[in-house]
Write a structure and sequence with these properties.
Helices cover 41% and strands 19% of the residues. It has helices at 2-18, 22-33, 38-44, 54-90, 109-123, 137-140, 173-181, 222-237, 290-295, 312-319, 326-329, 333-336, and strands at 127-128, 134-136, 165-167, 186-195, 207-217, 243-250, 253-262, 279-288, 304-311. Strands 1-4-5-9-8-7-6 form a 7-stranded mixed β-sheet, sandwiched between helices. A two-stranded antiparallel ribbon has the order 2-3. Strand 6 (243-250) and strand 7 (253-262) form a beta hairpin. The structure holds 3,4-dihydroxyphenylalanine. Residues 170, 172, 212, 250, 253, 284-286, 307-309 line the site of 3,4-dihydroxyphenylalanine (DAH).
Length: 339
């Protein structure tokens, strides 16, 4: 019996030595120590051993098992270490090599301008709200007092999805949507993309961006509108900037105005930038028309407010002295990198 065990041990050691991968070691473990393994077979043969011999033989079997297990463990550890070392050798990193340069993105001039406008108005307590780009005719036109025969509703000016749905031609419909929700007072700006059926040229694009502004509260006057937009212009174009309100017409405001700022290039003396006038037009605005308030469920005898709409591209072009709007959409990295 003793020889038999010695033989099993020697055989197991030989197979462990011959194993070249950890899986082979496992095979050896199963073959010798497993349920159907050779050592177990010896244990099963114990019934043929004289009873007084049994403890001794049992001890021998256990010693053999322990010896094989120890050698198996050692070999496994050694093998795994060797594998790890080999892997480390193969994966050596030369930290002196120059790194790969990631091409980093860059904020688009439109985005920079939009964030600047948002910063100014958020600083004055406004919320920034988004509205849908695909809009009901009702919000884009009707609720803003724009009658059915208004030229803005011409197919030349508007992309119709169907009779009732359009690609919004302005961000003003967000005004109606917010007023309808009825959470007063309101102080919000709403930047976003708008669409008009225009040919592309230096100052036109079928898709561009506006930022709408709306304030609704009790006791809001034209003075509030003027003060707000003056602060806005000074923040955006510098503290020397003057503003000028010219009477204008918009269907959803009454009275309405267009706002010019003194040319920040020449300070108002007149230059090529402001086409000699000293002034640059930047936005439309006015006091929200009582009928618009009514259509949106607000009582015009109690509440009133003002609104304004700024062209985002116009601001970006002015701020960065870009003379062709198409440059903003061509996505030429060499151009965009400059801002
Ligand atoms: N939505 C107008 C446009 O696209 C701009 C505008 C004018 C917006 C006056 C306003 C406003 O909110 O009060 O031409």
């Amino acid at each position: 019996m003793k020889e038999k065990l010695e033989q099993i041990k020697a055989e197991a050691i030989a197979q462990i030595r011959a194993a070249d991968v950890p899986e082979r070691l496992n095979d050896v473990r199963v073959k010798f120590l497993g349920k159907k393994g050779e050592l177990t077979a010896v244990l099963k043969g114990m019934k043929d051993v004289a009873p007084e011999e049994r403890p001794k033989v049992g001890q021998l079997v256990n010693d053999t098992r322990a010896a094989i297990e120890t050698i198996l463990e050692e070999s496994k550890t050694k093998m795994e270490r060797a594998i790890r070392e080999q892997k480390m050798k193969e994966e050596v990193i030369d930290v002196t090599l120059p790194s790969k340069k990631n091409i980093m993105g860059h904020r688009h001039p439109n985005t920079i301008a939009q964030e600047e406008v948002e910063r100014i108005f958020v600083g004055m307590g406004y919320e920034v709200i988004e509205g849908p780009e695909v809009e009901y005719d009702e919000y884009n036109f009707e609720k803003l007092n724009i009658p059915a025969d208004h030229p803005a509703k011409d197919e030349q000016d508007t992309f119709y999805i169907n009779k009732d749905i359009v690609l919004r031609t302005q961000t003003s419909p967000v005004q109606a949507r917010i007023m309808e929700q009825g959470n007063l007072p309101i102080r919000m700006i709403s930047p976003g993309r708008v669409f008009r059926s225009d040919e592309v040229d230096a100052t036109h694009s079928p898709s561009f961006h506006q930022i709408e502004g709306l304030v609704i509260d009790r006791n809001i006057s034209f003075a509030d509108l003027k003060g707000t937009l003056e602060v806005f212009a000074k923040e955006l174009f510098g503290p020397e900037t003057k503003t000028k309100f010219r009477p204008h017409h918009f269907p959803f405001t009454e009275p309405s105005a267009e706002v010019d700022v003194s040319c920040f290039k020449c300070g108002g003396k007149g230059c090529r930038f402001c086409k000699g006038s000293g002034w640059i037009e930047i936005l439309g605005c006015g006091m929200v028309h009582p009928h618009v308030l009514e259509m949106c469920g607000i009582d015009p005898t109690e509440y009133g407010g003002f609104a304004f709409g700024v062209g985002l591209e116009r601001i970006a072009l002015l701020k960065y002295e870009i003379d062709d709007m198409r440059l903003l959409y061509e996505n030429d990295i060499r151009f965009l990198k400059q801002f």
